[in-house]
Amino acid sequence: MSGFIEGDDRNQATLFPERLDDYVAEDSPVRVIDVFIDDLDISGLGFKTEPNDTGRPGYHATTMLKIYVYGYLNRVQSSRCLEHETQRNVEMMWLTGRLAPDHKTISDFRKDNGEAIRLVCREFVMLCKKLNLLSNALVAIDGSKFKAVNNRDRNFTRAKMKRRLAEVEASIDRYLERLDEADRSALAADNTQRLEDKVAALKEAMARLKKLEVRMLEAPDKQLSLTDSDARSMNSRGSGMVGYNVQSAVDSQHHLIIAHEVTNVGSDRAQLAKMAKQAQAVLGRDKLDVVADRGYYSGREIRACEQAGIDAYLPKPKTSGNKARGQFDRSEFHYKADNDEYECPAGERLIYRFTRTEKGKEIRRYWSSACTACPIKNKCTTGDYRRVSRWVHEAVVERAQARLDRQPDAMRIRRATVEHPFGTIKSWMGATHFSMKSLPRVSTEMSLHVLAYNLKRVINLVGTRQLIAAIEA
Ligand code: SF4
């Protein structure tokens, strides 16, 4: 590492009575971090490794990366806290050779090396694969909402804006009424002045909200976040939050996260194929089984998986209210592929009538002419005929349902697999979750969390010494 600031030799005798190395236990996770990062092809991953031509030498990327991985593994994530740790934490001193970059240098490294840090996370997954810690059989895909630094009051959607404008308007009306009353009852002048000041402040707030409304309506998704412009309002377990939707593909054997991605789209519906293909690429398999919850259910996504050789297991959401109303459910109509027709509960044939396009999908329509004279029609439809729709690729969805029927345990395995990583990472993050702003930086932050999670998990599974030996092998 010539050309860079050199650290102390950790075996050198100094004021300490023993070597610095003696302060770090043989099975300390910090030793794994040291070996893992030293083993990486740092420049190949995209980190800058050329020394500065002029000025003061900088810190080498391996030093900075070690600081971050150690920090995230030990729930120290802010650059200021990491700066303090480099000055007082013996393990950190051991790791960096007693180098102590300032918080700005630490912060800039994470900011400027997002893509390379994501690749380091992937390198560790590849190491897990080399150690045969991935099952190669079943991967669970799940998404979880993580809070952004953006407060809910600093996020505006059309509905929120309408509500806030109405609130301010109501307050102005209220104060104006009180002003009228004050005029009529000849209240003290200072009281009137106080009310006038309140009305003026509310009018200012209204003008500010109107300006924000213009900015909000200019955004493609008609949403505005003032602190972190990429954060979006999304639903999480029945309540709203402003944050990001983190997608993960988790191996079912040891609950290791093999692929992850941060998005600011609240719905999981379009994420299945993308995440499944990422998991497939990591595992290097032509065939793969993935399991997800009903939030991922999309015919197009299941078809995209099937085309890539991935079998998806996920339940169909129950959106029809027919069953609750005591009417026949869609599942009670059986498709007969040979004749391309449906058989209804009355045993009548619903034949193909025409095809139309709905939301970009080609939908075939079927019904029977016998409906008008059907004795059980009141249990089937309130219209003249019960019409059944079928997507042209419906067979893909039916195969997925048949797979799930053969594997009733799939949903239990999914729950047991995905809830562990997200629960662990959120507990490490604390109440605030992300500390950085913007989608790329939040993605970097998540990669460091995922790397720390996987690292800790593998250390627990394999043991520090064995892991070090495997990395060095
Ligand atoms: S109403 Fe029509 S579709 Fe429904 S059960 Fe009767 S015949 Fe079959």
In short:
The chain is of the alpha+beta class and 473 residues long.
How many strand elements?
Answer: 13
- Written as H for each helix and E for each strand, in order along the chain, the element string is HHHHHHEEHHEEEEHEHEEEEEEHHHH
Bound molecules: iron/sulfur cluster
Give the C-alpha Rg. Answer: 30 Å
Q: Strand count, sense and closure of the main sheet?
A: 6 strands, mixed
Structural category is alpha+beta
Poorly predicted ranges (pLDDT <50, ≥5 residues)? none
Portion of residues in beta strands equals 15-25%
Give the helices and strands, then pairings.
Blueprint lengths: L28 H11 L21 H13 L5 H10 L1 H7 L6 H10 L1 H17 L7 E10 L7 E3 H28 L3 H30 L4 E3 L6 E5 L2 E13 L5 E7 L8 H12 L4 E4 L7 H9 L2 E4 L20 E3 L4 E3 L5 E10 L2 E7 L20 E4 L2 H13 L3 H20 L9 H24 L1 H9 L1
Parallel strand pairs: 1-7, 7-8
Antiparallel strand pairs: 1-5, 2-3, 4-5, 5-6, 9-10, 10-11, 11-12, 12-13
The structure holds iron/sulfur cluster.
Description:
By secondary structure, the chain is of the alpha+beta class. It is 45% helix and 16% strand. The strands form three sheets. Strands 1, 4, 5, 6, 7 and 8 form a six-stranded mixed sheet that branches. It has a five-stranded antiparallel sheet with strand order 9-10-11-12-13, with no helix packed on it. A two-stranded antiparallel sheet has the order 2-3. β7 (288-291), α10 and β8 form a beta-alpha-beta unit. The relative contact order is 0.13. The model has no long low-confidence stretch (mean pLDDT 91). Iron/sulfur cluster is lined by residues 344-346, 348, 368, 370-371, 374, 376-377, 380-381, 386.
